[in-house]
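Consider what follows.

. . .
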Amino acid sequence: MRKSFVSQVQVLAVLLAGCSFCVGQGNTALNSTAPEPEVAKASAPSPGFSARSPRYRIEPGDTFDVTFELSPEFNQTAVAVQPDGFVTLRSVGDVKVAGQTVPELTQTLRQAYSKMLNNPLISVVLKDFEKPYFVADGQIAKPGKYEMHGSTTLTQAIAIAGGFQSSAKHSQVLLFHRVDDQWTEAKLIDVKKMQKTHNLSEDPILHPGDMVVVPKNTLSKIDRLIPNMSMGTYVPLAIP
């Protein structure tokens, strides 16, 4: 009787283990098909987008006109941005404006004059400003600073600057782009490969202020004139 009871207990334990396994497998399947928690979705980073058409920012040397719609006695023409980024405003004094867009500059002037005028209406018109440009240097036919009219690629910039000299190393053209006041990005572009394969998909578009430098090739680094040496160095002496 005791043996039969033990056998029944063992059979019941096996059945319970099997049921537990099935329940566990069912939970695993449910968990695998269940949607992710809302918290996990919320924590996922959202993509960011950069400005496609950034506004021009005021630089030293720029000039602009300031017009007050209701207080014309404060109008100023040809306000010049000094090398340190400041301008001198009538009845206000020095205000730093370098690095600001025109809307930001307008708001800065409104804040400066709000101490003496109630909600001043101000208009700002740029008169003279830095045109977009690139600089070409090195083994270029016409090194110098060139204005950019619309989108300009690296190969187009080289053509604008007169093209390569015979001493140019086409495969190692340097492109310098100023990232900020402390860092400048440098890229090595194989223009020779692009010209050989007729594939301009890797031809980078220049940013205003970029600098293109074309180095010399290996042969052009050899001095054009070298000191004369004894002929005996090159021609063996005749032995009688």
Notes: Residues 2-33 form the longest helix (32 residues). The mean pLDDT is 77. Residues 48 and 187 are 25 Å apart (CA to CA).
